[in-house]
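Entry 14: structure prediction run for Response regulator FixJ. Input pasted below.
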Amino acid sequence: MPKGTVHVIDDDLAMRESIEFLLSSAGYEVKLYESAQTFLDLPDVEFGCILSDVRMPGIDGLDLLKRQKAAGSKLPVLIMTGHGDVPLAVEAMKLGASDFIEKPFDDDRLIGLIELALKQAQEGAKSEAVTQDIATRIQSLSPRERQVMDGLIAGMSNKVIAREFDISPRTIEVYRANVMTKMQATSLSELVRMAMRGGVIKD
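Run finished. Output tokens:
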């Protein structure tokens, strides 16, 4: 089982083959592209990370970053730079590159950066799935349940919420129980955290 997929984009054939040998030996699945365009022409790539040279004919590494960002891609991008390309590397970081590495690079450092990028991508995907799940739970609430939840996370007691909506505290208790069940929250503090994550409470 490969540790993960690395999409290597470099117009230099010898460099591509050298990286393929190194990463394959380290247990990664490696896919090679001679240009950023070749990579971008693929259907949506959802898994792995990108290792791209910064200076290439046509679409260079910075252009690739801009396009990935515009497309909403979550793939981490590591940029390879030549000696003296630090300003370009800084620009790449501003555009969302997860890191950069200067050629000729240390093999262990490259593998370490790829490991970190893939781990962050995995954690990011899990985190996004949880956020989406919470948003779905919030949408499942009826309008009245949503009002009761808003009251609860605002720190209002059952009695105050009941007065606000002119219904009995007993009915509010039923709505409160429904909210906790639908949100799968075991405590009020957990409900507040979910509301923050689901965008109900703005930072």
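Notes: The CA atoms of residues 142 and 165 lie 15 Å apart. Will compare against the previous run tomorrow.
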